[in-house]
Every structure is written in C-alpha cells, then in structure tokens.
Specification:
The chain has 332 residues and is α/β, with parallel strands linked by helices. The protein is globular, with a radius of gyration of 19 Å. The longest helix is centred in the middle third of the chain and has 26 residues, at 108-133. It contains 13 helices and twelve strands. The protein has one domain: Rossmann fold, CATH 3.40.50. A hairpin with a 2-residue loop joins β1 and β2 (13-25). 40% of the residues lie in helices and 23% in strands. This is Alpha/beta hydrolase family protein DUF900. It comes from Caulobacter rhizosphaerae.
Length: 332
C-alpha cells in the first residue's frame, strides 16, 4: 500500500509548527521529501486503478493522529494502520497528516494550542491540493479518519473551510469522516453548531466511534471546562445531523480479556480500537461507502434511535465479512 505524509513539525524541534513537509514513506519507513507539486503527482500516480481516460480511481484516506504523539510514534502508528487496513481488504492510498503533538502526557494544553494552529493548514496544505486536482472524470473518493485530539483538528479545519476562497472555488466534498475517540465536545456536533453544520455540509457520512470507559476523555472534559462531555466518550448529541451516526464500542472494550493494570491505564480505553479486528472491519466497510449504515453487519442498532449503533462483541465470520465487503465495494 502506498504511503505518504504531510508533516507540520519543525525539523529542528518536534514540538513546534514549521513549514509543511511533503513526504513519501517507503516500505522500509524511509522518508523522501518532495515539492508539493511532485508529492501530489506521486500520490495520484500511486493509484493502481485508472478510469478509461487514464485518471486515478479509488480511495484516498487522510489520517490525523491525536494528542501525545511524537513523530516517531506517528510513523509507527501509520505503519500499523496501513497493515490493518490492507489485512481487512482496503486497497486505497493512505496519507497521514502529522501535526506537532509533544509526545508527553503533561503537554495537553500545548498540544491543544498546536492542534488549533494546525487546523487551517489541513485545508491549505492537504485537502485543497486535491480539490484543485479533481476534474469531472476523476473518480478519487477522499475520506478522513481522526483519533482523539485529531478530531479537534478536523473540526476546526471544517469550521474554517467555508471561508477559504481557494478551496470553495470548486465544489468539493469528503466521502467518509471517521472520528475515533474524538476529543471534541458533544455539543459541538449538534446540527446548529459549527462541528455539526460544517461536517454536514462537506461530508457524505460522519461516523463517531465512542467508548464510555474512556477516562482520557473524562480528563479532557475537566481540562477544557466546556459545558458538554467529549463525543468520543458519550457519543452524539440528540440533535446531531441525520447524516451522522454513533458506534458505541463500550461493550467491546468491556469484554476484552485485560489485566487490572491494563484496564485502569487511561491509554488502553482511549486507543484500544486500533488493535481490534471488529473495529477495522466496521471502519473498512464504512470507508468503502457502498452500503447503508443500517446493513453494515459488524454493528447493531442501539435501541430505537435511527443513528445509534453498538459494535458487535461477537465477530461475524470471514465469509460474512467478505460478502459485505464485496457489496460495499460494488456499491461504489
């Protein structure tokens, strides 16, 4: 799977924002810096499938990491994500958006400040490049996945995107947005708030993965002093847009065979998703976008609310998953 990165970290100081660096990541982890134009060409050239007009066809996924992530950790996390996506049948092109998170537990406020400052560059240095490249016969679907404070970066970016003349000179949209353990206030995703309003405008489907055992996000509530808890802990507000859906992963986490030390470690509940096949199966079927959220077989409707689901604790069979994956791919 081809891999690329846009990094906003200053080369001389991992914790500071610097000019955007456009990197191609080799199979051995080696990083090659390219000019923005050469980088975008390399990304588009890496699509193995083409339209009859010779243009790229397929999926492009931007991944935005969260709080307390060093550059070294970001590279390792990207490699793990690519391996999991490939193992579950996703065949697109992976691009990570690396912002200067300190990689230190005590650096929450500094990370929050860097996240806010990094948000506008997500539009300028990343999405705008591909908005400008899209032509009528281009069949590249752009999606976003963000973890933890990365969801805050994305929310801020979309809140400002409507003001960006360069971006909005052309019609554009994101196919899928996946927020995993999102460190954004639940209320900000209401239909009349910036998060809900602008995600609903620019995104085909927004999916929230939440876990009520996530103590990292409970701490975030206290640090931010915002009036509502984190969406990545308690899910969507009642008045979220109809295009949003919440996948409650609490039962999956609670059923894991964990030691007491693992269970009380805040990072476990906050990051466990990425080690679970159940999550990756649901995520890949979501990214493919070809089947409705109500027939994705890795989840079950939670109660009678149309957009609330629980991630199943009993795994579906490999045959069931392959059948659903083929339908999801064929739907595109």
């Amino acid at each position: 799977m081809a891999a690329f990165m846009i990094s906003l970290r200053a080369k001389a100081d991992d914790s500071k924002i610097g000019p955007a660096r456009y990197l191609r990541i080799g199979d051995d982890g080696a990083q090659t810096a390219l000019s923005p134009t050469a980088w975008r060409k390399a990304v588009l050239d890496s699509f193995t499938e083409k339209t009859p007009q010779g243009l790229p066809r397929g999926d492009l996924l931007f991944y935005v990491h969260g709080f307390n992530t060093s550059f070294k950790d970001a590279l390792k996390g990207d490699a793990d994500n690519r391996a999991k996506l490939a193992a579950h049948g996703w065949t697109g092109v992976y691009v990570s958006y690396d912002w200067p998170s300190l990689g230190e537990t005590l650096g929450y406020y500094a990370d929050r400040s860097n996240a806010r400052a990094s948000a506008n560059a997500l539009i300028d240095s990343a999405l705008a490049m591909f908005v400008g490249a899209i032509v009528p016969d281009c069949q590249v679907r752009v999606s976003l996945m963000a973890h933890s404070m990365g969801a805050f970066v994305v929310r801020q970016a979309f809140s400002w995107a409507y003001q960006d003349v360069k971006t909005n000179a052309k019609a554009w949209s994101i196919s899928q947005l996946l927020l995993v353990a999102g460190d954004v206030s639940q209320g900000s995703l209401s239909a009349d708030q910036d998060g809900g309003r602008w995600f609903n405008k620019y995104v085909g489907r927004t999916t929230i993965y939440s876990n009520r055992f996530d103590s990292v996000l409970k701490i975030s509530d206290l640090k931010n002093g915002e009036p509502t808890p984190r969406a990545g802990r308690v899910g969507l507000p009642a008045d979220a847009p109809a295009s949003f859906c919440d996948i409650d992963c609490s039962a999956l986490f609670n059923g894991l065979d964990l030691s007491l030390a693992q269970r009380v470690n805040p990072a476990t509940a906050h990051c466990f998703y990425f080690k679970q096949d159940a999550f990756w199966r649901d995520a890949v079927l979501t990214l493919e976008g070809g089947i409705d959220r109500h027939v994705i077989p890795t989840r079950a409707l939670l109660g009678t609310t149309d957009n609330r689901f629980t991630l199943k604790t009993k795994p579906i069979t490999a045959a069931e998953y392959q059948a659903a994956l083929q339908l999801a791919q064929a739907g595109n």
